[in-house]
Amino acid sequence: MTPTYYLLLSALLFSIGAVGVLVRRNAIVVFMCIELMLNAVNLTLVTFSRINGKLDGQVMAFFVMVVAAAEVVVGLAIIMSIFRTRRSASVDDSNLLKY
Amino acid sequence: MSAVLAAAAAEVSTGEAIAFWVLGPVALAGALGMIFARNAVHSALWLVLTMLSLGVMYMVQQAPFLGFVQIIVYTGAVMMLFLFVLMLVGRDSSDSVVEVLRGQRLWATVLGIGIAGLIVGAVSRSLTDVPVENLQQQNAGGANVNNLGKSIFTEYLFPFELTSALLITAAMGAMVLGYLNRHEKGMKRTQKELVEARFRGEYERPSPLPGPGVFATANSVATPALLPDGSVAPESLSRLIDSTASETFSDEIKSVAGTEPGPDAHALTPSTKDTSTTDTKNTEDTEETR
Protein backbone atom coordinates (compact mmCIF):
# COMPACT_ATOMS: atom_id res chain seq x y z
CA MET A 1 0.00 0.00 0.00
CA THR A 2 1.07 3.55 -0.73
CA PRO A 3 0.04 6.91 0.78
CA THR A 4 -2.20 7.29 -2.26
CA TYR A 5 -4.73 5.15 -0.42
CA TYR A 6 -5.22 7.98 2.04
CA LEU A 7 -6.17 10.22 -0.86
CA LEU A 8 -8.70 7.67 -2.06
CA LEU A 9 -10.20 7.42 1.42
CA SER A 10 -10.42 11.17 1.65
CA ALA A 11 -12.11 11.32 -1.77
CA LEU A 12 -14.72 8.85 -0.53
CA LEU A 13 -15.28 10.80 2.69
CA PHE A 14 -15.61 14.03 0.70
CA SER A 15 -18.24 12.59 -1.61
CA ILE A 16 -20.16 11.09 1.32
CA GLY A 17 -20.17 14.56 2.90
CA ALA A 18 -21.37 16.13 -0.34
CA VAL A 19 -24.22 13.63 -0.61
CA GLY A 20 -25.11 14.36 3.00
CA VAL A 21 -25.30 18.10 2.33
CA LEU A 22 -27.64 17.43 -0.58
CA VAL A 23 -29.79 14.81 1.10
CA ARG A 24 -30.25 15.81 4.72
CA ARG A 25 -32.86 18.42 5.66
CA ASN A 26 -31.77 19.28 9.18
CA ALA A 27 -29.52 22.35 9.12
CA ILE A 28 -27.30 21.03 11.92
CA VAL A 29 -26.71 17.73 10.14
CA VAL A 30 -25.92 19.66 6.95
CA PHE A 31 -23.31 21.51 8.98
CA MET A 32 -21.87 18.24 10.20
CA CYS A 33 -21.58 17.05 6.61
CA ILE A 34 -19.66 20.23 5.76
CA GLU A 35 -17.35 19.45 8.67
CA LEU A 36 -16.81 15.98 7.23
CA MET A 37 -15.85 17.49 3.87
CA LEU A 38 -13.38 19.84 5.57
CA ASN A 39 -11.89 16.90 7.42
CA ALA A 40 -11.48 14.96 4.20
CA VAL A 41 -9.65 17.92 2.68
CA ASN A 42 -7.43 18.05 5.78
CA LEU A 43 -6.53 14.40 5.29
CA THR A 44 -5.57 15.19 1.70
CA LEU A 45 -3.41 18.11 2.82
CA VAL A 46 -1.62 16.02 5.43
CA THR A 47 -1.00 13.24 2.92
CA PHE A 48 0.37 15.67 0.34
CA SER A 49 2.57 17.22 2.99
CA ARG A 50 4.03 13.80 3.63
CA ILE A 51 4.41 12.93 -0.06
CA ASN A 52 6.19 16.20 -0.78
CA GLY A 53 8.34 16.08 2.34
CA LYS A 54 7.35 19.61 3.37
CA LEU A 55 5.32 20.90 6.30
CA ASP A 56 3.35 23.46 4.27
CA GLY A 57 0.44 21.06 3.88
CA GLN A 58 0.17 20.65 7.62
CA VAL A 59 0.18 24.43 8.09
CA MET A 60 -2.65 24.69 5.58
CA ALA A 61 -4.60 21.96 7.37
CA PHE A 62 -4.11 23.95 10.57
CA PHE A 63 -5.60 27.04 8.94
CA VAL A 64 -8.48 24.98 7.62
CA MET A 65 -9.19 23.91 11.18
CA VAL A 66 -9.21 27.52 12.37
CA VAL A 67 -11.60 28.56 9.61
CA ALA A 68 -13.81 25.56 10.30
CA ALA A 69 -14.05 26.45 13.99
CA ALA A 70 -15.02 30.07 13.17
CA GLU A 71 -17.52 28.86 10.59
CA VAL A 72 -19.12 26.45 13.05
CA VAL A 73 -19.52 29.16 15.70
CA VAL A 74 -21.22 31.62 13.35
CA GLY A 75 -23.26 28.94 11.58
CA LEU A 76 -24.63 27.44 14.75
CA ALA A 77 -25.49 30.92 16.07
CA ILE A 78 -27.43 31.57 12.85
CA ILE A 79 -29.20 28.23 13.17
CA MET A 80 -30.12 29.06 16.76
CA SER A 81 -31.56 32.46 15.85
CA ILE A 82 -33.52 30.95 12.95
CA PHE A 83 -34.82 28.28 15.31
CA ARG A 84 -35.85 30.98 17.77
CA THR A 85 -38.00 32.79 15.23
CA ARG A 86 -39.30 29.88 13.16
CA ARG A 87 -39.30 27.05 15.72
CA SER A 88 -37.63 24.78 13.20
CA ALA A 89 -34.12 23.76 12.18
CA SER A 90 -35.12 22.36 8.81
CA VAL A 91 -33.55 23.96 5.76
CA ASP A 92 -36.85 23.70 3.89
CA ASP A 93 -38.69 25.90 6.34
CA SER A 94 -36.41 28.93 6.19
CA ASN A 95 -37.00 30.45 2.79
CA LEU A 96 -36.89 34.06 3.94
CA LEU A 97 -33.87 35.59 5.57
CA LYS A 98 -35.41 37.90 8.12
CA TYR A 99 -38.87 36.83 9.21
CA MET B 1 15.39 1.48 -12.18
CA SER B 2 14.02 4.78 -10.94
CA ALA B 3 10.49 3.37 -11.07
CA VAL B 4 11.52 0.44 -8.87
CA LEU B 5 13.21 2.82 -6.45
CA ALA B 6 10.15 5.03 -6.41
CA ALA B 7 7.91 2.05 -5.76
CA ALA B 8 10.14 0.97 -2.91
CA ALA B 9 10.11 4.48 -1.48
CA ALA B 10 6.35 4.72 -1.85
CA GLU B 11 5.70 1.61 0.21
CA VAL B 12 4.68 2.22 3.78
CA SER B 13 5.48 0.05 6.75
CA THR B 14 3.32 -2.93 7.67
CA GLY B 15 2.19 -1.33 10.90
CA GLU B 16 0.93 1.72 9.09
CA ALA B 17 -0.84 -0.47 6.55
CA ILE B 18 -2.61 -2.31 9.36
CA ALA B 19 -3.54 1.01 10.99
CA PHE B 20 -4.92 2.25 7.70
CA TRP B 21 -6.96 -0.85 6.98
CA VAL B 22 -8.44 -0.71 10.46
CA LEU B 23 -9.07 3.03 10.66
CA GLY B 24 -10.15 3.58 7.04
CA PRO B 25 -13.24 1.34 7.22
CA VAL B 26 -14.06 2.79 10.64
CA ALA B 27 -13.92 6.32 9.22
CA LEU B 28 -16.06 5.31 6.25
CA ALA B 29 -18.56 3.57 8.52
CA GLY B 30 -18.76 6.71 10.65
CA ALA B 31 -19.41 8.90 7.62
CA LEU B 32 -22.10 6.58 6.28
CA GLY B 33 -23.66 6.27 9.71
CA MET B 34 -23.80 10.05 9.97
CA ILE B 35 -25.74 10.27 6.72
CA PHE B 36 -28.14 7.43 7.43
CA ALA B 37 -28.87 8.09 11.11
CA ARG B 38 -32.37 9.52 11.52
CA ASN B 39 -31.59 11.15 14.83
CA ALA B 40 -29.28 14.15 14.65
CA VAL B 41 -27.55 13.25 17.93
CA HIS B 42 -26.67 9.84 16.51
CA SER B 43 -25.30 11.61 13.42
CA ALA B 44 -23.06 13.72 15.65
CA LEU B 45 -21.74 10.66 17.46
CA TRP B 46 -21.00 8.88 14.17
CA LEU B 47 -19.11 11.96 13.02
CA VAL B 48 -17.11 11.89 16.26
CA LEU B 49 -16.06 8.34 15.36
CA THR B 50 -14.87 9.46 11.92
CA MET B 51 -12.99 12.43 13.34
CA LEU B 52 -11.23 10.33 15.97
CA SER B 53 -10.02 7.83 13.40
CA LEU B 54 -8.88 10.68 11.15
CA GLY B 55 -6.94 12.14 14.08
CA VAL B 56 -5.11 8.86 14.60
CA MET B 57 -4.46 8.75 10.87
CA TYR B 58 -2.82 12.16 11.04
CA MET B 59 -0.54 10.89 13.79
CA VAL B 60 0.35 7.84 11.73
CA GLN B 61 1.06 10.12 8.78
CA GLN B 62 3.81 12.01 10.62
CA ALA B 63 1.60 14.89 11.69
CA PRO B 64 1.36 14.37 15.47
CA PHE B 65 0.50 17.98 16.26
CA LEU B 66 -2.42 18.03 13.83
CA GLY B 67 -3.57 14.68 15.13
CA PHE B 68 -3.87 15.99 18.65
CA VAL B 69 -5.42 19.25 17.48
CA GLN B 70 -7.93 17.20 15.53
CA ILE B 71 -8.91 15.22 18.60
CA ILE B 72 -8.93 18.16 21.02
CA VAL B 73 -10.39 20.91 18.85
CA TYR B 74 -12.66 18.97 16.52
CA THR B 75 -13.96 16.11 18.59
CA GLY B 76 -13.51 17.87 21.90
CA ALA B 77 -14.76 21.37 21.14
CA VAL B 78 -16.54 21.60 17.81
CA MET B 79 -18.57 18.42 18.13
CA MET B 80 -19.50 19.26 21.70
CA LEU B 81 -20.72 22.63 20.44
CA PHE B 82 -22.81 20.74 17.89
CA LEU B 83 -24.24 18.58 20.64
CA PHE B 84 -25.03 21.62 22.79
CA VAL B 85 -26.94 23.23 19.93
CA LEU B 86 -28.72 19.96 19.22
CA MET B 87 -29.83 19.77 22.82
CA LEU B 88 -31.03 23.40 22.69
CA VAL B 89 -32.95 22.83 19.49
CA GLY B 90 -34.34 19.78 21.19
CA ARG B 91 -37.19 17.75 19.84
CA ASP B 92 -36.88 19.23 16.38
CA SER B 93 -33.53 17.51 15.96
CA SER B 94 -34.79 14.52 14.00
CA ASP B 95 -34.99 14.84 10.26
CA SER B 96 -38.14 15.06 8.21
CA VAL B 97 -38.80 12.22 5.83
CA VAL B 98 -40.78 14.32 3.37
CA GLU B 99 -39.00 14.86 0.08
CA VAL B 100 -39.66 18.42 -1.06
CA LEU B 101 -37.99 18.12 -4.46
CA ARG B 102 -38.98 14.97 -6.26
CA GLY B 103 -36.12 12.54 -6.85
CA GLN B 104 -33.65 14.71 -5.00
CA ARG B 105 -32.23 11.88 -2.92
CA LEU B 106 -31.72 9.66 -5.95
CA TRP B 107 -29.99 12.39 -7.93
CA ALA B 108 -27.86 13.40 -4.95
CA THR B 109 -26.70 9.80 -4.58
CA VAL B 110 -25.93 9.57 -8.29
CA LEU B 111 -24.00 12.82 -8.07
CA GLY B 112 -22.05 11.63 -5.04
CA ILE B 113 -21.12 8.36 -6.69
CA GLY B 114 -20.09 10.34 -9.77
CA ILE B 115 -17.86 12.67 -7.75
CA ALA B 116 -16.33 9.75 -5.88
CA GLY B 117 -15.70 7.88 -9.13
CA LEU B 118 -14.10 10.89 -10.77
CA ILE B 119 -11.78 11.75 -7.89
CA VAL B 120 -10.85 8.16 -7.12
CA GLY B 121 -10.18 7.45 -10.78
CA ALA B 122 -8.08 10.55 -11.25
CA VAL B 123 -6.09 10.07 -8.05
CA SER B 124 -5.49 6.37 -8.55
CA ARG B 125 -4.34 6.88 -12.14
CA SER B 126 -2.14 9.90 -11.62
CA LEU B 127 -0.62 9.32 -8.20
CA THR B 128 0.34 5.64 -8.25
CA ASP B 129 4.07 6.05 -8.94
CA VAL B 130 4.68 9.19 -6.94
CA PRO B 131 7.86 8.98 -4.88
CA VAL B 132 7.13 9.69 -1.25
CA GLU B 133 9.57 11.93 0.56
CA ASN B 134 8.68 11.35 4.13
CA LEU B 135 8.90 13.96 6.89
CA GLN B 136 11.58 12.21 8.95
CA GLN B 137 13.92 15.19 8.61
CA GLN B 138 11.35 17.75 9.69
CA ASN B 139 10.03 15.61 12.51
CA ALA B 140 13.40 14.41 13.83
CA GLY B 141 13.51 14.42 17.61
CA GLY B 142 9.93 15.56 18.01
CA ALA B 143 10.58 18.79 16.12
CA ASN B 144 7.26 18.68 14.30
CA VAL B 145 5.70 21.35 16.48
CA ASN B 146 8.85 23.51 16.36
CA ASN B 147 9.00 23.43 12.59
CA LEU B 148 5.28 24.05 12.27
CA GLY B 149 5.54 27.05 14.58
CA LYS B 150 8.53 28.38 12.68
CA SER B 151 6.65 28.04 9.45
CA ILE B 152 3.49 29.69 10.82
CA PHE B 153 5.32 32.64 12.36
CA THR B 154 7.66 33.36 9.45
CA GLU B 155 6.33 32.22 6.12
CA TYR B 156 2.63 32.23 7.01
CA LEU B 157 2.64 35.15 9.42
CA PHE B 158 0.16 37.29 7.47
CA PRO B 159 -2.44 34.52 7.05
CA PHE B 160 -2.00 33.76 10.73
CA GLU B 161 -2.76 37.37 11.65
CA LEU B 162 -5.77 37.25 9.36
CA THR B 163 -7.10 34.25 11.26
CA SER B 164 -7.06 36.34 14.44
CA ALA B 165 -9.31 38.89 12.73
CA LEU B 166 -11.50 36.03 11.55
CA LEU B 167 -11.80 34.55 15.02
CA ILE B 168 -12.68 37.90 16.59
CA THR B 169 -15.28 38.51 13.90
CA ALA B 170 -16.72 35.06 14.48
CA ALA B 171 -16.93 35.65 18.22
CA MET B 172 -18.64 39.01 17.68
CA GLY B 173 -21.03 37.46 15.17
CA ALA B 174 -21.94 34.67 17.55
CA MET B 175 -22.60 37.18 20.32
CA VAL B 176 -24.73 39.41 18.09
CA LEU B 177 -26.73 36.49 16.73
CA GLY B 178 -27.09 34.72 20.02
CA TYR B 179 -27.95 37.75 22.15
CA LEU B 180 -31.59 38.14 23.06
CA ASN B 181 -32.56 41.42 24.73
CA ARG B 182 -35.28 40.56 27.20
CA HIS B 183 -35.55 44.10 28.52
CA GLU B 184 -36.39 45.67 25.21
CA LYS B 185 -39.73 47.46 24.91
CA GLY B 186 -42.43 44.95 24.19
CA MET B 187 -40.36 41.93 25.12
CA LYS B 188 -41.25 41.81 28.80
CA ARG B 189 -43.46 43.99 31.01
CA THR B 190 -41.82 46.11 33.63
CA GLN B 191 -43.13 46.08 37.19
CA LYS B 192 -44.98 49.37 36.74
CA GLU B 193 -46.69 48.23 33.55
CA LEU B 194 -47.63 44.99 35.26
CA VAL B 195 -49.26 46.80 38.21
CA GLU B 196 -51.22 49.09 35.89
CA ALA B 197 -52.37 46.15 33.84
CA ARG B 198 -53.48 44.37 37.01
CA PHE B 199 -55.61 47.25 38.22
CA ARG B 200 -57.01 47.76 34.75
CA GLY B 201 -58.44 44.28 35.12
CA GLU B 202 -56.33 42.36 32.64
CA TYR B 203 -55.65 39.74 35.28
CA GLU B 204 -58.11 37.92 37.51
CA ARG B 205 -57.13 39.72 40.71
CA PRO B 206 -54.92 42.70 41.47
CA SER B 207 -53.02 41.08 44.31
CA PRO B 208 -50.88 37.98 44.24
CA LEU B 209 -52.39 34.71 45.39
CA PRO B 210 -52.24 34.02 49.12
CA GLY B 211 -49.32 31.88 50.18
CA PRO B 212 -49.38 28.74 52.30
CA GLY B 213 -51.20 29.15 55.56
CA VAL B 214 -50.08 31.41 58.37
CA PHE B 215 -51.34 29.02 61.02
CA ALA B 216 -50.33 25.95 59.11
CA THR B 217 -48.12 23.31 60.62
CA ALA B 218 -45.94 23.07 57.50
CA ASN B 219 -44.68 25.43 54.82
CA SER B 220 -45.51 22.98 52.07
CA VAL B 221 -47.28 24.22 48.97
CA ALA B 222 -49.94 21.65 49.72
CA THR B 223 -50.78 23.33 53.03
CA PRO B 224 -53.64 25.73 52.45
CA ALA B 225 -53.89 29.22 53.89
CA LEU B 226 -56.64 29.78 56.40
CA LEU B 227 -59.04 32.68 56.44
CA PRO B 228 -59.78 34.49 59.77
CA ASP B 229 -62.82 32.31 60.40
CA GLY B 230 -60.73 29.18 60.06
CA SER B 231 -61.95 28.08 56.67
CA VAL B 232 -59.53 27.26 53.86
CA ALA B 233 -58.71 30.07 51.46
CA PRO B 234 -59.50 28.46 48.10
CA GLU B 235 -57.02 30.62 46.16
CA SER B 236 -54.13 29.39 48.27
CA LEU B 237 -54.52 25.84 46.97
CA SER B 238 -52.29 24.97 44.09
CA ARG B 239 -54.24 24.09 40.99
CA LEU B 240 -52.19 20.92 40.56
CA ILE B 241 -52.90 19.54 44.01
CA ASP B 242 -56.25 21.20 44.41
CA SER B 243 -58.22 17.97 44.49
CA THR B 244 -56.01 16.14 46.96
CA ALA B 245 -54.96 18.89 49.34
CA SER B 246 -58.31 19.67 50.94
CA GLU B 247 -59.04 15.98 51.57
CA THR B 248 -55.59 15.10 52.83
CA PHE B 249 -55.40 17.99 55.23
CA SER B 250 -59.01 18.10 56.36
CA ASP B 251 -58.13 16.75 59.81
CA GLU B 252 -55.29 19.22 60.27
CA ILE B 253 -57.45 22.06 59.07
CA LYS B 254 -60.11 21.08 61.60
CA SER B 255 -57.61 20.91 64.44
CA VAL B 256 -56.09 24.28 63.48
CA ALA B 257 -59.49 25.89 63.08
CA GLY B 258 -60.68 24.62 66.44
CA THR B 259 -63.89 23.12 65.11
CA GLU B 260 -62.82 19.64 66.10
CA PRO B 261 -63.25 18.54 69.72
CA GLY B 262 -59.91 18.58 71.49
CA PRO B 263 -58.16 15.54 72.88
CA ASP B 264 -60.10 13.58 75.40
CA ALA B 265 -59.33 14.74 78.92
CA HIS B 266 -59.69 11.17 80.21
CA ALA B 267 -57.50 9.67 77.53
CA LEU B 268 -54.60 9.05 79.91
CA THR B 269 -56.65 7.75 82.83
CA PRO B 270 -56.44 3.98 83.15
CA SER B 271 -59.67 2.57 81.85
CA THR B 272 -58.47 -0.87 80.73
CA LYS B 273 -61.93 -2.25 80.37
CA ASP B 274 -62.87 -0.08 77.41
CA THR B 275 -59.67 -0.70 75.49
CA SER B 276 -59.79 -4.45 76.05
CA THR B 277 -63.36 -4.63 74.76
CA THR B 278 -62.51 -2.64 71.67
CA ASP B 279 -59.49 -4.88 71.11
CA THR B 280 -61.54 -8.02 71.23
CA LYS B 281 -64.09 -6.42 68.93
CA ASN B 282 -61.38 -5.67 66.41
CA THR B 283 -60.00 -9.19 66.48
CA GLU B 284 -63.47 -10.59 66.05
CA ASP B 285 -64.05 -8.34 63.06
CA THR B 286 -60.83 -9.45 61.41
CA GLU B 287 -61.64 -13.09 62.02
CA GLU B 288 -65.03 -12.64 60.46
CA THR B 289 -63.60 -11.03 57.40
CA ARG B 290 -61.16 -13.91 57.09
Structure characteristics:
heterodimer, A: 99 residues, mainly alpha, Helix Hairpins, 78% helix, B: 290 residues, Four Helix Bundle (Hemerythrin (Met), subunit A), 12 helices, elongated, disordered N terminus
What would you note in describing this structure?
Chain B: Residues 269-280 have a biased composition (Low complexity). Chain B: Keywords: Cell membrane, Membrane, NAD, Quinone, Transmembrane, Transmembrane helix. Chain B: Its main location: membrane. Chain B: It comes from Herbihabitans rhizosphaerae. The complex is a heterodimer of chains A (99) and B (290). Chain A starts with a helix and ends in a 13-residue tail after the last helix. Chain A contains 3 helices and no strands. By secondary structure, chain A is mostly helical. In chain A, helix 1 packs antiparallel against helix 2 and helix 2 (27-52) packs antiparallel against helix 3. Chain B has 290 residues and is an all-alpha fold. Among the domains of chain B are: 11-91, Four Helix Bundle (Hemerythrin (Met), subunit A); 210-290, no CATH class. Chain B contains 12 helices and no strands. Chain B is elongated, with a radius of gyration of 38 Å. Chain B starts with a helix and ends with a helix.
> How confident is the prediction overall: mean pLDDT of chain A?
89
Rounded to the nearest angstrom, the distance between the terminal CA atoms of chain B is 104 Å
User: According to CATH, what is the class of the domain at 25-86 in chain A?
Assistant: Mainly Alpha
Question: Which percent range fits the helix content of chain A?
Answer: over 70%
Averaged pLDDT of chain B: 79
Specify the structural class of chain B. Answer: mainly alpha
Structural class computed from helices and strand pairing of chain A: mainly alpha
If you consult CATH, what is the topology of the domain at 11-91 in chain B?
A: Four Helix Bundle (Hemerythrin (Met), subunit A)
Strand residues, percent of chain A: under 5%
Poorly predicted runs of 5 or more residues of chain A = none
Fraction of residues in H or I helices of chain B = 55-70%
Please state the CA-atom Rg of chain A, rounded to the nearest Å.
Answer: 17 Å
Could you spell the SSE succession of chain A in H and E letters?
A: HHH
The largest pleated sheet of chain B is described as: none
